[in-house]
Target: Metal-dependent hydrolase
Amino acid sequence: MKVTYYGHSCFSVFTNGKHLLFDPFITPNELAKEVDVDAIKADYIFISHAHYDHILDVERIAKNTGAKVLGNFEIYNWLLKQGIENAHPINPGGKFDFDFGTVKCVIAQHPSSFMDGSYGGIACGFVLTTPEGNFYYSGDTALTLDMQIILKFTKLDFAVFPIGDGLTMGIEEAVEASKLVGVNKILGVHYDTFGFIVMDHQKAFDTFKNANLELYLPKINTTIDL
Model:
């Protein structure tokens, strides 16, 4: 599968002929200033939680592309109020089949609120199964033993974990999360965007390598194969 990184926690996966975009936060990110937001392709957009650094560009991209946008029920209602009619609710425990494959919504340990402070529903992660491979995006989360349940239902090809620490898991916790879900290929996200989540890249690479795991930290606006 081809994975494009747009900075912070925003990335897309091209699989089974569809572009799947996650947590679009690009335009305010100084590190992603070279990204042309209006050129991003999306057939589906997945929102892990309501914090501004995960939803700020969703309205613009959804209206540009006509993508179906999925999030918890509170996010779903918020999307409708923004004029995004092609919205679809999904809560932890639920799953739906689409033309690219299947998405299962799972729990994440993290707060969730909209920019005005209103309740944003429960934070989520997503497990996606497709004919070309399976992957898990944890969303913003702490390390939790709930992750081990994923391995009971889905054999994963890779996982996407936050590794910037402070507000989410850090490097060491992401290594343990990788073991819980049974992956050895990990895309790291949610680092460097703000001063309090700046990360030592070499330490991250070394820590994962010492655990016999392969960490990917692609440059923003580049595409890799996973």
User: Anything to note?
Assistant: The CA atoms of residues 47 and 71 lie 5 Å apart. The chain has a mean pLDDT of 97. DSSP finds six helices and 14 strands in the chain. The domain at 2-225 is CATH 3.60.15.10 (Metallo-beta-lactamase; Chain A).
